[in-house]
Design a protein that fits this description.
Largest sheet: 6 strands, mixed
Number of strands: 10
Shape: globular
Strand content: over 45%
Distance between the termini: 40 Å
Order of helices and strands: EEEEEEEEEE
Helix content: under 10%
Radius of gyration: 13 Å
Oligomer: single chain
């Protein structure tokens, strides 16, 4: 069984920063590509960023230049560094593999004045 635990969310003002972490049981980060997803109220869950096992990254257009996804396979941890946060970034953030089979409970990010 694979369990993913997201952390690092919180309440931040527009323009602020947060770093999210995702830690997995086992060692799946060395085997799989990983992604960060988010779901805002009333919206479908969307893919925010991905990182392959080789370190190649992709980003949702609206977060390019502001978010950075990274991974530390030795620590079995995925990160999402977020800067210049905007109210529209408010959502519950999740990590998962491209198969979307290992949802955790997510971590809430709220961007508000």
């Amino acid at each position: 069984q694979v369990q993913l635990v997201e952390s690092g969310g919180g309440l931040v003002q527009p323009g602020g920063s947060l770093r999210l972490s995702c830690t997995a049981s086992g060692s799946i980060f060395s085997i799989n590509a990983m992604g960060w997803y988010r779901q805002a109220p009333g919206k479908e869950r969307e893919l925010v960023a991905t990182i392959t096992t080789g370190g190649r990254t992709t980003y949702l257009d609206s977060v390019k230049g502001r978010f950075t996804i990274s991974r530390d396979n030795a620590k079995n941890t995925l990160y999402l560094q977020m800067i210049n946060l905007k109210p529209e970034d408010t959502a519950i953030y999740y990590c998962n593999t491209p198969s979307r089979r290992y949802w955790g409970q997510g971590t809430q990010v709220t961007v508000s004045s």
